[in-house]
Amino acid sequence: MNAQQPEAKLLVVDDEPNIRELLSTSLRFAGFDVTAAANGREALAAVEREEPDLAVLDVMLPDMDGFTITRRLRAAGRHFPVVFLTARDDTDDKVTGLTVGGDDYVTKPFSLDEVVARIRAVLRRTHPDEDNAVLAVDDLELDDDAHEVRRAGEVIDLSPTEFKLLRYLMMNPNRVLSKAQILDHVWEYDFNGDASIVESYISYLRRKIDSREDWEPMIQTKRGVGYLLRSADRR
């Protein structure tokens, strides 16, 4: 790969120098442009300076945890994907990470091949496709170019993975999609087959897309089968 055309610009944040250096070196070798930071303050400054395409973010940092950093980024309108690193294989941590807008999770100790594979999968699923720049189902619109979702003209703020999930649902209106189909299309790297991630993201998306009482619920569950986005003419 041409060194002048990196695959993507990454930010690696970890307070352990050995891990930070190992990750940075390995990701550069894999073809990425990498900036490293040792704590939350350095990370936030690096985001402003470098405008990364993705962050690899340790959860446990000395000044603020990775969840707090992600909340600050999202509140500031920074919606690039985040892959969390943690020493704890804790379901609560995973749920918290996804709730604040994370996109994937890697548990220490990890293999470098796994980290690279997950980063590439997240970048693939959060990169807008060239075709179908604007999708519309009833009063719900998804604009790939602007990375914006609107319902009844109201802008709805989504994380990159929520955006990708909604796009898949909108490309298949009134069609029931199984958890396996959603995992394969949206996550690609399948979270070790953990289908509960689909349930969580459907729940997050439903709270945003179907949030108002005067909006007809669009995201529906077919128990034991899957999920669908139902249009007005099929309700």
UniProtKB/TrEMBL annotation:
Gene Ontology molecular function, alphabetical: phosphorelay response regulator activity; transcription cis-regulatory region binding
Cellular component annotations (GO), alphabetically ordered: cytosol; protein-DNA complex
Keyword field contains Cell membrane: no
Residue ranges occupied by any Response regulatory domain in the UniProt entry: 9-123
Matching PROSITE patterns: OMPR_PHOB, RESPONSE_REGULATORY
GO BP, sorted A to Z: regulation of DNA-templated transcription
Entry keyword set: DNA-binding, Phosphoprotein, Transcription, Transcription regulation, Two-component regulatory system
InterPro entries linked: CheY-like_superfamily (IPR011006), OmpR/PhoB-type_DNA-bd (IPR001867), Sig_transdc_resp-reg_C-effctor (IPR016032), Sig_transdc_resp-reg_receiver (IPR001789), WalR-like (IPR039420), WH-like_DNA-bd_sf (IPR036388)
Protein name: DNA-binding response regulator
Organism: Galactobacter caseinivorans
Lineage per the UniProt record: Bacteria, Bacillati, Actinomycetota, Actinomycetes, Micrococcales
